[in-house]
Specification:
The structure holds 2 protein chains of 2 kinds. Chain A is built from 12 helices and 3 strands. Chain A is mostly helical. In chain A, strand 1 and strand 2 form a beta hairpin. In chain A, helix 9 runs antiparallel to helix 10. By secondary structure, chain B is an alpha+beta fold. Classes of the chains: A mainly alpha, B alpha+beta.
């Protein structure tokens, strides 16, 4: 068990463990309450558990040190990140706080295990860095044009199938109902999380062949967009056939899981097609 | 064996945690007290009065998110004896932080599919010697054009851009204060831009003048309210 191997290390470096927990526990509590409870951070728990699991798999069998720790490097990064952390935590900049926390943990890990150990675990660490929430203003600027394109696509598709549908901006009218594309002011649903989960799949299936994985990576964003399109269409159709109230209650509960499944299925589909093509070459 | 390095680094982390919590703003600034903004904003002033019908001419504040950001919202329609109509929306948020701040119309309207053109802010005269900085925005969709005038108050300041709004929040936080904030937005569908904005301005002027002097601080901040007296 990785946990059993980790415990002696945590005990041996007890001042680091206590200091670290004083930073991690309140910050994670804030992340959970203000980010994970929103749609944009709904995949947070899955991301954290799978990320930690990936990391645990890389724990060495014995507790011996692999390389000589780089004290200067770690000290150089530790104190600046701590200062950024203080600023972010004190004045409520969650993105800054979590990013700096990540930096502090990396610095301490480098101090204890050496930078080589971090380099060897670059994928799980990169994957876990997706837990850092993007600032809302940036997310909005990037995703609000996409959201309007998605509404246009969804309406166009359904109109060509004969549904009585029209849209103006992100307001979609179908029959007697009016829908606003979800959370107009708070970004496209979980684009970052979907990208991270697709990365997880790629890492698992194609770790050996990074050139192929990089090609697959190009399809991550389209897959996330398709997932959101499917979600919008499902919401429209459910409203049309079952009424407003049903659509609101039924779909919202399942929304997170559904987008996640559609995104992964699309990536899987692309993977299968690409592999066929490669075999054919 | 516990190394000195571990103690120094662990101690620095503990210090950072305590330092951050000590620096965090705690004092709440409320200009509204126990009042509701609906009670402060008069239903009838100058030549204006509220219309009974609640027709919708502006996008409603987003579901869910609005409830988190604002503790009070008021949406009204006013008309005057010449037939001019103005839609007014006011939103009050008791705690302005980076994550939970007023959403400015120039950031919100594009998310609803409007194409937005933001003009330079104008200064609406209140009493002789006092002016209110007001933002002006033209919002268009394929079906409609709306002329929107608004101001936002964070604590005592009246930021005219998203950037100055963030700075106002941070400046208050550095003083140890969590400020409250209010956004007052009015719009009309008069086809001509200059006429439309002039109408908004005269409405804003009449509105602020009509608010009881002791309640003006909640709308325009204490310093400007003081200057008006």
């Amino acid at each position: 068990m990785a946990t059993a191997r980790a415990l002696p290390i945590l005990f041996a470096h007890w001042p680091l463990t206590i200091g670290g927990l004083l930073l991690i526990v309140p910050s994670m509590a804030r992340l959970v309450t203000s980010n994970w409870s929103r749609e944009s951070g709904i995949h947070g728990p899955i991301l954290l558990t799978t990320g930690l699991w990936l990391l645990a798999r890389t724990m060495p069998d014995t507790g011996q040190k692999l390389t000589v720790p780089r004290k200067t490097f770690a000290a150089l990064t530790l104190f600046p990140t701590l200062i950024v952390y203080i600023f972010g935590r004190a004045f409520g900049f969650l993105s800054l706080e979590i990013a700096a926390l990540f930096g502090v943990i990396m610095s301490i890990a480098a101090l204890v295990f050496g930078t080589q150990a971090l380099r060897e675990r670059w994928f799980p660490l990169l994957y876990l860095s997706f837990l850092i929430p993007l600032p809302g203003a940036i997310v909005d600027t990037v995703t609000s044009p996409l959201k309007i394109d998605l509404s246009t696509a969804a309406t166009g598709l359904l109109r060509s199938m004969g549904y009585p549908i029209a849209h103006d901006g992100v307001t979609i009218s179908i029959a007697q109902y009016q829908l606003l594309v979800e959370d107009a002011c708070s970004g496209l649903n979980a684009l970052g999380s979907l990208a991270a989960l697709s990365l997880f799949y790629i890492y698992f299936m194609h770790r050996a062949s990074w050139r192929y994985a990089a090609i697959l990576l190009i399809f991550v964003l389209p897959a996330a967009l398709i997932a959101n399109l499917v979600r919008i269409i499902a919401l429209i159709l459910l409203t049309y056939y079952a009424g407003d109230a049903t659509a609101q209650s039924a779909l919202h509960a399942a929304a997170g899981i559904m987008t996640f499944m559609v995104a992964l299925t699309s990536i899987y589909g692309v993977d299968v097609v690409l592999q066929r093509l490669r075999v054919g070459l | 064996m516990t190394s000195r390095r571990d103690v120094i680094v662990g101690g620095s982390c503990a210090l950072a945690a305590c330092g951050a919590d000590a620096l965090a703003p705690r004092q709440r600034l409320s200009t509204l007290g126990k009042l509701h903004i609906a009670d402060i904003l008069p239903h009838q002033f100058g030549t204006w009065r509220t219309s009974p019908q609640a027709e919708q001419t502006a996008p409603e504040a987003e579901d869910g998110l609005a409830a988190k950001l604002y503790s009070q919202t008021v949406s009204r329609h006013y008309h005057d004896n010449t037939g001019a109509q103005i839609a007014m929306f006011a939103a009050y948020g008791p705690t302005q932080t980076d994550a939970m701040q007023l959403h400015r119309p120039e950031e919100c309207y594009p998310a609803f599919g409007y194409t937005v053109a933001l003009n330079a802010p104008v200064f609406v005269p209140l009493t002789p010697g006092t002016v209110l900085p007001v933002c002006q925005m033209t919002a268009r969709t394929a079906l409609r054009t709306e002329f929107v005038s608004y101001w936002a108050r964070i604590g005592d300041s009246l930021p005219v851009s998203a950037w100055t709004q963030r700075r106002a929040i941070l400046m208050k936080a550095l003083e140890g204060v969590i400020a409250d904030g209010i956004l007052i937005r009015c719009s009309n569908l008069t086809p001509h831009a200059a006429t439309a904005f002039a109408l908004n301005n005269s409405f804003i002027h009449a509105l602020v003048i009509a608010v009881a002097p002791q309640h003006r601080a909640a709308l325009i901040g204490a310093p400007l309210a003081q200057d008006m007296r």
